[in-house]
Design a protein that fits this description.
The complex is a heterodimer. In chain A, about 75% of the residues lie in helices and about 0% in strands. Chain A is built from three helices and no strands. Chain B is built from nine helices and five strands. The chains are: A mainly alpha, B alpha+beta. Chains A and B meet through helix 3 of A and helix 5 of B.
Chain lengths: ~100, ~300
């Protein structure tokens, strides 16, 4: 739950004025990629990434851009880790199949 | 008063720390990020296969350290520490994926080679089996051919021997006083001298002509055979003259046959005088048997 801690942080005093467009785009793309392969093999990290992305989108709506930027960056990092771990598990399964002669 | 003091203290703290001092939670997350990064960056696979991911983890960690050192906001320290920790784990995972992919390639190559070897072994075994079968078939064929040839040869020989025996028997019946017998040397026709020659002479009697006609005819029919003509006498008289007489008589028979068209080289004429008697020289009957010409029809 510590990962959600940021949700409840008060907005930073020195807020960004510009909307984090590229961070949001990167987060959306990475979450979509992770969703395609990680639902079974890395469900927790995927759920965290999706949840953070949703909160980032909401922060964007409220024009809380600094908050949205941090959430988007974390969502992207979580999604990338989910994707990587899922990919790793699938590769390990492929290796076992290859070695057992299929 | 109390309240205003509190407020002014808070204001002082805020002013001194910029946004805030490092919270225990931020400190904990930063320490976790450092440990995670240190562990991951020491892995040679990560250095080799996940340099980009490791670099982005390093960037976040340095940012977290900088903010912590400069008294930046705890939430930004936490944020960057969090990114550093996630990216470190991503770098490790990426390196592990590359490692597993390399292992898969090796396993696939192993399997391909194993299959190839198995196929090659199978093909070689099939080839060997086919060659063996072919060799066995050829050998059987050769053996069959050999047996067939041997059978034909044997039949030919046996047919020839049967024919020869029949003809010799016919000669024997056609020629009065001729005895035929089969020996290791071949057929031997024994002609009494009385049939062929006057006593003491080596000139063939006219009565011998028919016998020699028959013999010549027989030899013409069997060009593969040759003859030994051997003259013998009894023991009356000097051995030398008997020897010469037996030779002259053998040659007379040979000349009669060559005169009938038989090649001279097929006939070997010899005289043995009184040697090799076939009966006792003590009686006239015995001496009569010893005075003889033997015609040996050699095996072909």
């Amino acid at each position: 739950m510590k990962r959600l801690a940021l949700f409840f942080l008060p907005l930073a005093a020195c807020a960004m004025t510009e909307p984090p467009v590229s961070e949001m785009a990167a987060a959306r793309e990475m979450v979509a990629q992770a969703r395609a392969i990680a639902a079974q093999d890395a469900p927790q990290d995927l759920a965290t990434a999706q949840s953070k992305l949703a909160h980032a989108e909401a922060a964007m709506q409220r024009e809380h851009y600094e908050h949205a930027r941090l959430l988007a960056q974390q969502a992207e990092a979580d999604a990338k880790l989910a994707w990587t771990n899922a990919e790793k598990l699938q590769a390990q399964r492929a290796l076992r199949e290859e070695r057992s002669g299929r | 008063m109390k309240t205003s003091l509190k407020l002014s203290l808070m204001a002082a703290v805020l002013a001194a720390g910029g946004c805030a001092t490092l919270s225990p939670e931020a400190e904990r997350q930063l320490e976790e990020a450092r440990a995670s990064y240190r562990f991951v960056s020491e892995d040679p696979r990560v250095q080799r296969y996940a340099a980009v991911e490791l670099a982005s983890a390093s960037t976040a960690l340095r940012e977290a350290e900088r903010l912590a050192a400069e008294g930046g906001s705890p939430e930004l320290v936490e944020h960057n520490a969090y990114l550093a920790e996630r990216r470190s784990r991503t770098a490790l995972g990426t390196a592990q994926i590359r490692q597993v992919e390399a292992d898969i390639a090796v396993a696939r190559e192993d399997r391909r080679r194993t299959q190839l070897e198995a196929r090659e072994r199978e093909a070689a075994a099939a080839r060997a089996r086919a060659e063996q079968a072919e060799a066995a078939r050829r050998e059987a064929e050769q053996r069959a051919q050999l047996l067939a040839r041997e059978r034909v040869e044997k039949e030919k020989v046996s047919v020839a021997a049967t024919e020869l025996a029949a003809e010799v028997k016919r000669l024997e019946t056609e020629l009065a006083d001729v005895r035929a017998k089969q020996t290791d040397r071949g057929w031997i026709l024994t002609l009494k001298n009385e049939l062929l020659f006057d006593s003491g002479g080596a000139t063939l009697k006219s009565g011998a002509q028919r016998a020699l006609d028959n013999l010549a005819q027989f030899l013409r029919k069997h060009p593969e055979r040759d003859l030994a003509i051997e003259g013998f006498t009894d023991s009356i008289g000097s051995p030398d003259s008997n020897q010469r007489l037996s030779e002259r008589r053998a040659h007379a028979v040979k000349d009669a046959l060559t005169g009938r068209g038989i090649e001279s080289w097929r006939i070997h004429a010899r005289g043995y005088g009184p040697s090799f008697p076939v009966a006792s020289n003590a009686t006239e009957t015995g001496r009569q048997l010893n005075r003889r010409v033997e015609i040996v029809i050699n095996p072909s």
